Amino acid sequence: MKFLIVLALIAAVSADLKPLSKEQADEVRHAWDKVKHNEVEILHEIFKAHPDIQNKFPQFAGKDLEQIKSNSDFSTHATRIVSFITENLSLAGNPDLLPAIKTRVNEMGQNHRNRGVTKEQFNEFRSTLTDYVKHHSSLDGDAEHAWNQAFDNVFFIIFSNLDGHPVV
Ligand code: HEM
């Protein structure tokens, strides 16, 4: 029994937020800087790999990806997603700004919960985005570790919201 309690405590601690150090945040920003202007290409890669994500968007569902890719609706949404990442990364690595990140990500998680987006879809998104950054920028060693830590944190907040509990 004691053993189970210890295991449960370890699980609870390891599932918590691990904010990035300033150095880690700089490494992630450095990798992200090289791709952050490829908004349309990034969303295109995500929809191509995961049509179930595309189909969650009423304005894109069932449409030919190669055609919608050049619409202004598409680039507007691509810019929203990519800017969300850029803005949160600009706050990372500074403990004073952690509450601001939590507020934004809680809000985004709540909005996406209301849209019925699943954890599986978020994981699909993460995996395609990470592959994209690996292929178009430099992401290995410490930078890759920091990137994964950043996404573990953001996804911890999003998933808590999908479960109905904002992170305080
Ligand atoms: C993984 C599956 C996802 C699905 C199915 C999804 C779906 C949607 C939909 C349907 C909208 C509304 C679009 C509109 O009103 O034009 C939206 C808005 C938005 N999405 Fe996503 N999304 C996903 C992941 C993400 C991720 C990972 C990010 C950020 C990194 C993101 C950032 C945003 C932002 C910033 C908005 C606009 C503000 C808002 O309404 O929250 N989304 N998303």
Automatic annotation (TrEMBL):
<keyword id="KW-0732">Signal</keyword>
<comment type="similarity">
    <text>Belongs to the globin family.</text>
</comment>
<dbReference type="Pfam" id="PF00042">
    <property type="entry name" value="Globin"/>
</dbReference>
<keyword id="KW-0561">Oxygen transport</keyword>
<keyword id="KW-0813">Transport</keyword>
<dbReference type="GO" id="GO:0005833">
    <property type="term" value="C:hemoglobin complex"/>
</dbReference>
<keyword id="KW-0349">Heme</keyword>
<keyword id="KW-0479">Metal-binding</keyword>
<dbReference type="InterPro" id="IPR000971">
    <property type="entry name" value="Globin"/>
</dbReference>
<dbReference type="GO" id="GO:0005576">
    <property type="term" value="C:extracellular region"/>
</dbReference>
<feature type="signal peptide">
    <location>
        <begin position="1"/>
        <end position="15"/>
    </location>
</feature>
<dbReference type="GO" id="GO:0005344">
    <property type="term" value="F:oxygen carrier activity"/>
</dbReference>
<dbReference type="GO" id="GO:0019825">
    <property type="term" value="F:oxygen binding"/>
</dbReference>
<protein>
    <recommendedName>
        <fullName>Globin domain-containing protein</fullName>
    </recommendedName>
</protein>
<feature type="domain" description="Globin">
    <location>
        <begin position="19"/>
        <end position="163"/>
    </location>
</feature>
<dbReference type="GO" id="GO:0046872">
    <property type="term" value="F:metal ion binding"/>
</dbReference>
<dbReference type="InterPro" id="IPR009050">
    <property type="entry name" value="Globin-like_sf"/>
</dbReference>
<keyword id="KW-0408">Iron</keyword>
<dbReference type="InterPro" id="IPR044399">
    <property type="entry name" value="Mb-like_M"/>
</dbReference>
<dbReference type="GO" id="GO:0020037">
    <property type="term" value="F:heme binding"/>
</dbReference>
<dbReference type="InterPro" id="IPR002336">
    <property type="entry name" value="Erythrocruorin"/>
</dbReference>
<dbReference type="InterPro" id="IPR012292">
    <property type="entry name" value="Globin/Proto"/>
</dbReference>
